[in-house]
Amino acid sequence: MKRLFLLIFLLNILLALNAQKFMTKNGYIGFFSHTSMEDIKGDNNQVAAIIDISTGEMVFQALIKSFHFDRALMEEHFNENYMESDKFPKSSFKGKITNLSSVDFSKNGTYSVIVEGDLTIHNVTNKISTKGTIEVITGGINANSKFNIVPEDYKIVIPGVVRDKIDKNLEVTVSMKYTPVAK
Amino acid sequence: MKPYVKIILFIVLVVALITILTALIGFNKKHADTAKVRPDFVITATTLQKEFEDNETAASARYINKIIEVSGIIASTSLSDSAHLNISLKTGSDISSVNCVFPAIGDLSKFKPGDEITLRGECSGFLMDVLLKNCAIIAKRN
Fold first, then answer.
1. Looking at beta carbons, which residues of chain A come within 8 Å of B60?
2. What pTM does this model have?
3. How far is CA B23 from CA A72, A163, B11, B77, in A?
4. What's the domain range around A141?
5. CB contact under 8 A, A26 and B103
6. Do B82 and A46 touch (CB under 8 A)?
7. A73 → closest Cβ in B29, B133, B134
8. Shortest CA gap B8–chain A (Å)
9. Among the partner residues B26, B30, B133, nearest to A68 by beta-carbon distance
10. Looking at chain A, which residue has its C-alpha nearest residue B86?
11. Domain assignment of residue A8, yes or no
12. pLDDT single digits (tens) B75-87
């Protein structure tokens, strides 16, 4: 009998813990480069992401090959020359909301947050800190952020010949629509 | 002008033209129209997902960058921010599906969970789902 109660107790904890987790498998991450020569935009609509609202932890994972470019040749160069996606197929972020107490997940609304963590691109990891917003809506959570990265910080080599066609800073846009992890 | 000079000039001109044409064609290369290209594999969503789940390394080597024609039942659809359509196909797994992204907005209301469809896409790899991109609908039953 004690065993049964223990089991039910543990199960309840597990369920409760899962009730704190929200996820998406169709998250959006895009990046944008603007130069006088050319605008380049890469879009990924298959980002997997989880947020734990009890701890503020956020994890994102993206396949490099899932980034779509309008120009097929640009997509080819991106994968084969710059990102070497056969060698390094994934990019990830692991971090947390540092001002978690300023978000009331029980009340619908938009909250400003700061997220800090490790961003890994091209097998190079850098600590980043970025501002974003958390929007609590009925049945879900939306997260948005915009920040810049420098390709060279991730050992991404862009040959001199085309370097001027790509902005020194790339603007990264993150847009997630999380729903509760179903049990 | 000496005859051999003329010939050399002609050859240089031809080489230059070929180089320019090749660059232009490459620059303007379009993504493969997956609706028209012959698929490398024809498979069900359940079988495809299971292969990645059982042995991700082997399945990755076999399917990544290939055009795959997948048939299955729609688990869910969603419209993303940047106006792309995502369709997830049911598999034998509760948590892992075949996730397909379509390049242009289609008529989302055409596709509902439970619909049986066949689509073609390029395999990008595996995260929590098998990911296909540049997808096109081939057939829809019921």
1. 89
2. 0.85
3. 13, 18, 18, 39
4. 21-180
5. no
6. no
7. B29
8. 29
9. B133
10. A26
11. no
12. 999 876 557 889 9
Comparing CA positions, the residue from A85, A89, A33 lying closest to residue A61 is A89
Domain contains A93: yes
Closest by Cα among B108, B31, B34 to B74: B108
Neighbours of A89 (CB within 10 A): 20
CATH code, domain with A75 = 2.40.128.110
pLDDT, mean of residues A92-106: 96
Average pLDDT rounded to a whole number, residues A44-69? 96
**What digits encode the pLDDT tens for the residues B106-122?**
666 688 899 999 999 99
Query: Is residue A15 within 8 Å of A183, Cβ to Cβ?
Result: yes
In a domain, A1, yes or no: no
CA A1 to chain B, closest CA, distance in angstroms equals 31
User: What are the chain B neighbours of A61 within 8 Å (beta carbons)?
Assistant: 127
Alpha helices in chain A (DSSP H): 2-18, 72-77, 160-163
